[in-house]
Design brief:
449 residues; alpha/beta; TIM Barrel; 2 domains; eight-stranded parallel beta sheet; two-stranded antiparallel ribbon; 20 helices; globular; binds zinc ion
Length: 449
């Protein structure tokens, strides 16, 4: 049990902070921040129906208004009372990002303070190995400077009993440029290769099909051929929020990302959530998708038809080819609508089984974050959580927290949740999962444990 709560493989740096950290970092700069930027105030008002007025909130806190504290906690944390949906989470996550962007402009000391707070929280809870993820904004030079400083500080915070590693999150909108930032950083500061161990694709996945990222995987593979001693690994958020498409396509995305070479998949909820539960989450959920996705799905079904049939999935080649011919007459972003039937839901369960078997064959790891998955995906019944399917399968699985500060949780809490809602004992859970350190992108075999 202790071993499972010592290694954190999926955590976002800004998401580590508690409300007290947020207040401490924001109290001197809140009045300088443009709270309208990135549509924050507008999105908040859309979702919650009122203007959060962060400037007044901080001012009231400075004046000792205790009622303001609960409001600040509400702006930063995403909990049971919040509605499911990625945008509902994102508006909470972005509150601190505004403080962060403002303070980053004021110097390196700010970054040191943020990292010290995040790392101190993990050290106090007995963690031994943490891979922190973070993205950056600004010009290429600014991004390189930010990531360099983050990596240097994380290195400085490493002790004989605590290792910090850094995974750089690349924006999905322009992934090749994002990768160039990372490669430029490592070319300029090769000593950082020990700390910078991977790249990640995070935030909104909807509308960003894996095929768009093939050139990034290829570019990184070329880099790794030139740098075999310190390769960079890809981890990838997928199958977390997927209302833009059919369940078949969402399952396929997980498979495609694994085949492209991602080492670990963030969440992959769609592979473990029963399709009947998935479609009951919203009216008409997953019945529509763009023509482009349906065409990609048809291509996939034809390419994998033999394997899919072995799993009992019906693949009618002639019908699929005729459908593809019709679809090619239409615009790629037009909508295809396909209602669900019991047979189709049964097929999707078999597709999930096929892809889970494929992940096991490839050695791909699923990073499961129980609380975040439950809240964002809208799975109120603990028995419906995808982790049950993952635990029953042989797929590599790690329990992580994602954003412990926003979700008000810890890694020990997440492991505790799994023990509470499954039949596992600490002993059987450890036997099933094994030491998560073996899935780390780097670790020092000589480290004293
Ligand atoms: Zn994440």
């Amino acid at each position: 049990m202790k071993m499972l709560a010592q290694t954190e493989l999926h955590v976002h740096l800004p998401g580590c902070l508690t409300p007290a950290d947020v207040f401490a970092l924001g109290r001197d700069v809140y009045h300088l921040i443009d709270w309208d930027s990135f549509g924050y105030r507008q999105l908040f008002a859309q979702i919650h129906g009122y203007d959060p007025r962060p400037e007044q909130l901080f001012a009231r806190l400075q004046q000792g208004d205790a009622t303001a504290w609960d409001e600040l906690v509400f702006l930063h944390t995403y909990r049971e009372d919040d509605k499911p949906g990625f945008d509902h989470f994102l508006v909470k996550f972005r509150f601190f990002l505004h403080i962060w962007w403002q303070r980053w402009g004021t110097g390196e000391q700010v970054l040191a303070e943020l990292l010290s707070r995040a790392v101190a929280g993990h050290q106090a809870r007995g963690l031994r190995y943490v891979e922190y993820r973070c993205g950056a904004s600004g010009t290429q030079e600014e991004q390189v400077a930010f990531h360099r400083q983050t990596a240097v500080f994380l290195h400085q915070l490493t002790t004989p009993t605590f290792q910090a590693r850094y995974i750089i999150s690349i924006p999905r909108q322009d992934p090749l440029t994002g990768l160039e930032v990372v490669l430029t950083l490592l070319a300029q500061y090769p000593e950082l290769r020990e700390i910078v161990v991977g790249v990640d694709f995070a935030s909104i996945e909807e509308g960003q099909p894996p095929k768009k990222f093939r050139p990034v995987f290829a570019r990184l593979a070329a880099y790794n051929r030139e740098n075999p001693k310190r390769p960079l690994t890809i981890v990838y958020h997928v199958g977390e929020s997927f209302y833009d498409k059919s369940l078949e396509s969402a399952v396929r995305w997980c498979h495609e990302v694994a085949l492209m070479g991602a080492r670990r998949l963030g969440h992959a909820i769609v592979l473990g959530l029963d399709p009947a539960v998935a479609i009951a989450r919203r009216p008409f959920a997953h019945e529509q998708e763009p023509v482009s996705e349906r065409l990609d799905q048809i291509r996939y079904d034809l390419a994998h038809r033999q394997a899919l049939r072995r799993y009992g999935v019906a693949v009618d080649e002639a019908a699929l080819l005729a459908e593809a011919k019709r679809l090619r007459q239409r615009e790629e972003d037009e909508v295809v609508e396909r209602p669900f039937t019991p047979e189709r839901l049964a097929d999707i369960r078999q597709r999930q089984q096929y892809v889970l078997d494929e992940l096991a064959r490839l050695g791909t790891v699923i990073e499961c974050c129980p609380t975040g998955n439950r809240l964002i995906a809208g799975i109120p019944n603990p028995q419906h959580h995808p982790i049950h399917r993952f635990l029953a399968h042989a797929v590599n699985l790690a329990i992580c927290t994602d954003n412990p500060g926003n979700f008000v949780t810890t890694l020990a809490d997440e492991v505790g949740w799994v023990l509470r809602y499954t039949r596992h004992t600490p002993h059987t859970l450890l036997t099933r999962l094994g030491d998560p350190r073996r899935f780390g992108l780097s670790y020092d075999k000589h480290m004293r444990l």
